Amino acid sequence: MKYLLIFAALSLSACITNSEFDQEQAFQKCKNIDQKTSRDRCLSEAVEDAKRDRQKVNDRLQQQHEDAERRELERAKAGVEQD
Questions:
Q1: Could you list the residue range(s) of the whole structural domain that residue 51 is in?
Q2: Which of 11, 53, 54, 82 shows the smallest number of beta carbons within 10 Å?
Q3: Structure confidence at residue 9 (pLDDT)
Q4: For 27-80, how does the pLDDT look when each residue is reduced to its tens digit (9 = 90+)?
Q5: Residue 33 backbone class (left: φ over 0; alpha: ψ -120 to 50; beta: rest)
Q6: What mean pLDDT value characterizes the chain?
Q7: Exposed e or buried b per residue across 22-57, where buried means at least 16 C-beta atoms within 10 angstroms of its C-beta
Q8: CA atoms within 13 A on the CB side of 23
Q9: What does the alpha-carbon distance between residue 52 and residue 57 come to, in Å, rounded to a whole number?
Q10: Are residues 25 and 49 in contact, defined by beta-carbon separation less than 8 angstroms?
């Protein structure tokens, strides 16, 4: 239970850090746009792009983890069948 709480706390802090990082990147990308509505649109799109990119990376990591678990299970089955 203790480890679950630690994991939850670390995950929450990572989400907050990523959100702040996305906003900072968006600001840097759009800071030279003078018109407020265009700058706001640029900021919104930049943050959404960063979120999408991060989600793709998370999905890829999750798939790699699932593939590794599947391979390990298949190896374990093969070892049992050989015995």
A1: 2-82
A2: 82
A3: 55
A4: 888 888 899 999 889 988 888 888 898 899 999 999 999 999 999 999 888 887
A5: beta
A6: 78
A7: beeebeebbeeeeeeeebeebbeebbeebeeeeeee
A8: 6
A9: 9
A10: no
